[in-house]
TrEMBL record:
The modification 4-aspartylphosphate is found at D55. It comes from Streptomyces nigra. InterPro entries: CheY-like_superfamily, NreC/VraR/RcsB-like_REC, Sig_transdc_resp-reg_C-effctor, Sig_transdc_resp-reg_receiver, Tscrpt_reg_LuxR_C, WalR-like. Residues 4-122 form the Response regulatory domain. It comes from the Bacteria. It holds the Pfam family GerE. Signal peptide: none annotated. CDD domains: LuxR_C_like, REC_NarL-like. The lineage of its organism: Bacteria, Bacillati, Actinomycetota, Actinomycetes, Kitasatosporales. This is Response regulator transcription factor. Residues 153-218 form the HTH luxR-type domain. Keywords: DNA-binding, Phosphoprotein, Transcription, Transcription regulation.
Length: 225
């Protein structure tokens, strides 16, 4: 089945360009277009979207609010949101990750990067590989309340085993399951099991939220380069 993509952007010209690009791929299709966040949430449910390409700045209900609404709706638990932003350095991006987005991508990205992002999000992974994303998360968490720690988050980490904490640290470093497996000398399947258990215990939708939790809890200290 092709990946069902919903486009949410208040600029019709951009939506048209994204539609042509996405529909040109045999493994994905555009199932709807929204010009604001409220419409995006409605269409995500009606059209059974797998991935929403969400502009963060839209009139009315913006992309941040829409992402929170999608994340909070059990009926949309399968939907993955990829935030599209004109500004790669934007504190709204971190807020979106906290709200449940799977990652972000600059609107100036190459077509292949956009298509790859859709496939990564649809596969349940997080768009955390680029160094810019990790440094962005660290930068804004570092400039948050105090040192960015959330005591409540820290207490929730008590539910993790030593190995799950160890894996979480590696996930926060942007490593893939294969890379973590090689570093810890275990199988990728074992890593995946630990990641899934950590997500369940911490109430995280995906790896992106695991990274934010790792920073907010103080398990990983923000580093601004």
């Amino acid at each position: 089945m092709p990946i069902r993509v919903l486009l949410a952007d208040d600029q019709a010209l951009l939506r048209s360009a994204f539609r042509v690009l996405v529909d040109s791929e045999p493994d994905m299709e555009v199932v709807g277009e929204a010009s604001d966040g409220e419409e995006a949430v409605r269409l995500a449910k009606e059209e059974r979207a797998d991935v929403v390409l969400m502009d963060i700045r839209m009139p009315g209900t913006d992309g941040l609010a829409a992402t929170r609404m999608i994340s909070a709706d059990p009926a949309l638990a399968h939907v993955r949101v990829v935030i599209l932003t004109t500004f790669e350095v934007d504190d709204y991006v971190v807020q979106s990750l906290r709200a449940g987005a799977s990652g972000f991508l600059g609107k100036g990205s190459e077509p292949d990067e956009l298509l790859a992002a859709i496939r990564v999000a649809a596969g349940g992974e997080a768009l955390l590989s680029p160094a810019a994303t990790k440094s962005l998360i660290a930068r804004f968490l570092a400039h948050g309340d105090g040192d960015g720690r959330d005591p409540a988050r820290g207490e929730r980490l008590d539910a993790l085993t030593v190995r799950e904490r160890e894996v979480l640290v590696q996930v926060a470093g942007g490593l893939s399951n294969d890379e973590i497996a090689e570093r810890l000398e275990v199988s990728p399947l074992t890593v995946k099991t630990h990641v899934n258990r950590a997500m369940s215990k911490l109430g995280a939708r995906d790896r992106a939220q695991l990274v934010v939790i790792a920073y907010e809890s103080g398990l990983v200290r923000p580093r601004v380069e």
